[in-house]
Structure formats: structure tokens, C-alpha cells
Amino acid sequence: MNRTLYFMVRTIADARRLMQELLLARVDDKHISFYARTRDALGDLPQTSTLQRTYMIHGGMVGFFICAGLGFLAGLLVISIPHPWFPNWYVAASPPTIVTITTVIGAVAGAIWTALVSSALPNELLDKFRRDIEEGHVLMIVRVPGNRVDEIRDSLVKRHPEAIYLGSRPKDYVVFP
Fold this sequence. Notes:
The protein is of the alpha+beta class. The protein has helices spanning 12-24, 50-53, 56-80, 95-118, 124-127, 130-134, 149-159, and strands at residues 2-9, 32-35, 138-145, 164-169. It has seven helices and four strands. It is elongated, with a radius of gyration of 24 Å.
């Protein structure tokens, strides 16, 4: 399982040094991203994606399940209406087919709509870093395999005292005191 590590550095130059260190440690550049006050300040460093900066995925999943339920209820409503109410072009279908189609349409439409709406909401995980980012610091986000977390974290902390380790996601849990 992959884990996401968060580091804060003061300058873009420090961010470039960390990026080089991670590349030398054979971390793929697709798994490294940076978040700064302005996107232009980062230059050629990889920037965080919309999915990392917003609640797009979470919103899409919520919309998927809620609207799938609403689509299911709409399908039940459609099959409970007597047939004379339907227009002339209506072709009779079996009740399970109608419920399935309305559920799928509701799920897909809800996922798309809520993902688009939630793309305007900033990610709450990054809110705790916003004050430092507004002061000009740079947040580095690195996704590494679970078996390399300690190696990458320890190497960056030892070699780069300017990099402040801010934790990981999923959280580091201590099994025994």
C-alpha cells in the first residue's frame, strides 16, 4: 500500500534539492508534487493536481452513492405508476430493468455533478498547511510504497534539516508503547 509523506521547506531552492534527492533515491517523479502560494513560483517543479488540492474524489463518491439511491427510488416510483400514464412512445420493460437503468443513470449523473461542484472546495487535509504556504513556504507531497516510508523519511530528515516532516497519510500508528 502506498503512503503519502508531507514535508515543508522554506524556499524553492530547497524544494529543488529535495526533488533531486528523491530522484536519486529512485522515487518516480510522477509521485512527487509541490504546493506553493502561486503556481508560477514553482517553475518546472511538478505541481499538485486538482485531485490533490480539492475534494473532487470524495465529492464524486458521495454523489455516486446518494444519487444511486435516489435513482433506485425513482425507478421504484416509475414501476409503481400505472401504464396508462406513460406516453405513446413508451416501450414496456421489466421492472428490474427499469430500476437498474434509473439507478445507473442516477449514480453516474450524481458522481459527475458532485465531483464538479466539489472541485471548488479546498482539501481539508491541506488546510493545516495553508498558513505556512501563505508565508511563502513550499509543501512537498510524496507517494512512496509502504515498505520504503522509513527509508525515504529518514534519509530526507538526516540530509536536509531544512525539510520539516509533517506526517503521512494514512497516519503513522504505534502498535506498542
